[in-house]
Amino acid sequence: MKKISIIGIGPGGYEDMTIRAVRAIKECDVIAGYTLYLSLIMDLIGDKETVCTQMRGEVERCRRALALAESGKHVGLISSGDAGIYGMAGLMLTLLADHPDIDSEVIPGVSACQSGGALLGAPLSHDFAVISLSDLLTPIELIEKRLSAAAEADLAIVLYNPGSHKRSDYLKKACDIILGYRSADTVCGLTRNISRDDQSHQIVSLSELREMTVDMTTTVFIGNSQTTVTGGHIVTPRGYRL
Amino acid sequence: MKKISIIGIGPGGYEDMTIRAVRAIKECDVIAGYTLYLSLIMDLIGDKETVCTQMRGEVERCRRALALAESGKHVGLISSGDAGIYGMAGLMLTLLADHPDIDSEVIPGVSACQSGGALLGAPLSHDFAVISLSDLLTPIELIEKRLSAAAEADLAIVLYNPGSHKRSDYLKKACDIILGYRSADTVCGLTRNISRDDQSHQIVSLSELREMTVDMTTTVFIGNSQTTVTGGHIVTPRGYRL
After folding, report:
1. B23:A15 CB<8 A
2. Could you say which residues of chain A have pLDDT below 70?
3. Interface contact A85-B114, CB threshold 8 A
4. Nearest-angstrom CA–CA distance, B66 and B75
5. C-alpha angle B189/B190/B195, rounded to 5°?
6. ipTM, 2 decimals?
7. pTM metric for this prediction
């Protein structure tokens, strides 16, 4: 069977995978993915053939998945979170366009904005924007324009890839842009290492967020002007009359 | 056990539920939800006690869940999609703030932007905004401001609640706003009745989208300026060099 299933496995724990993702992994002949993500689902993979590539090896990983599918195998390409949100689906489908004989499917999963949001409460219960601070593949000017627009329109904002060693001041710059439109006491949240043993979450103000240290395991939430902390949870209200 | 689990069940089919959501439903004493959503998971609910309320009965539903939890029960409050994205989590957590003796948890699930996005390909593989066109609880001026901002900043856009009988021209108005910033041939997509027998999806241009009829089961996707149709799928590229 020439097929590639592009599978979002959620934050990493078995509990947050969908039934469809678990079944697909079991059905595949070969599992391809970034080494760290494969290690999270080793119990499901069992003794299946695997293709591991390192971070930033995305194009190579997809090409190897294609070659295996062309040889008649059903390949499961693993993406953390949702395969369609900063995941492998876009790149894999682009390369698949030259291989119409290979069947494909995209299996959605719980993304960090959802698993992190659930830990914090309900920060995304109204309109929101999802923006990555990584300028590896996106001009920084476009990222800044999107941050300004989302802040001005009072959208709640989720920041993916908020920082790394090379981009230690990006979160501070993002907060400065947002502070141009939103008050310093805007309710914000951070989640780290979701679904791992050292998972944590924290509620801070926008001015406090500006001073925080973040890394690639952090997801950042910035409330809109109506977002509150209630009962220890972040809630962005929809407007129900109580 | 005084507890409320706020459970996102995804688009409605068993396959797209998370392991955690299935387990929680099995563990609860009582299941509360909108009648239609409970009907989708009757096999899981079995002969458990249920509390069904109609559409727009959200506040009453939460108050009944609270009363049941106060009586010592573990209540599962069902939300379609993700409980934190236009779901029940925000309202329920707000009401729970006055009941610190009741334990709670939010269980995320696959939202329509993800299940619909996976059907269409990968329309949300780069930064995006999620905006509801329902003005039941939100001033229409704020919705329009958010549409303008997202369009100007070249964010991909997902529209929830794009239309109903009373709001038959809202999608047209939204397209007109977006057409002020984005070309008429911008790649767009629609999904209908996701995970039901009559599930469908369609790829259209922004000018064609303007003329479409939509209802409450439709989710609308508007690509950014780089979004393409490739191999029959919508792909919003992240910028990988191939």
Report:
1. yes
2. none
3. yes
4. 8
5. 125
6. 0.97
7. 0.97
